[in-house]
Fold this protein.
Amino acid sequence: MRYAKDHKEKTRQRIIEVAAQNFRERGFEGEGIASVMQSAGLTNGAFFNHFTSKEDLAREVVAYAMAERLDFLNERIASGGNTQAYIESYLSTRHRDNPQQGCPIATLVADVSRRSEPVREAFAEGMDSLVSRLAEEWPALPADEARGKAIALYALINGALQMARATKDNALSEEILGAGKKAALALL
C-alpha cells in the first residue's frame, strides 16, 4: 500500500508538534527520542527518516514553538486584544499550569543556552520576531526605544512566569504572578 504524497511531511510535522509539547513540559534532557516517537504513535526507527539527530529535532522544535508563539501574539492583538490582555494571559494560572502548551521561552530558555549553535540561532530568530512584533505596539516611540521596551517586557514576564512555576507554595506563586503583572503593566 502506498502512502499519500504528503504522508512523510505530515508525519514529520506530527513528530515536531509532539516533541514541542514534551520538550516544553520536561526539557530537552528530560525527554528522549523513544518517548517522543511513542507519543507520536511511531517506532523509534522512523525517527531517522525525518531527523539526523535529537539536536536536529531540537532545532526544529524551537523554530516551530517560537513561530507558534508569534502566531498566538498576532492572533491576540488582531482579535481586538492589546498588550495588556497579552500580559494578563501570559501571567495567568492557566499558562503557569500548562507549560506543555505555553510559551517556549519560559520553558526552554535555560536548555537552549546549553544547546548547539543551530538551536540557539533558531531561538534567537524566534525571539527577534516576537520582540519586533511587540515593539510595533508602541508606534509613537522611536524604534530603538520601542524595541527596548519589548525586550524588557519579555524579560519581565518570562522571569515572573518561571519563578511562579518553580515554587510549590501556591500563595507565593500567585503573588509572583500578580507582582509580575503589575510591573509589566507599568511598562506600558
Notes: The first helix runs from residue 7 to 26. The mean pLDDT is 93. DSSP finds nine helices and no strands in the chain.
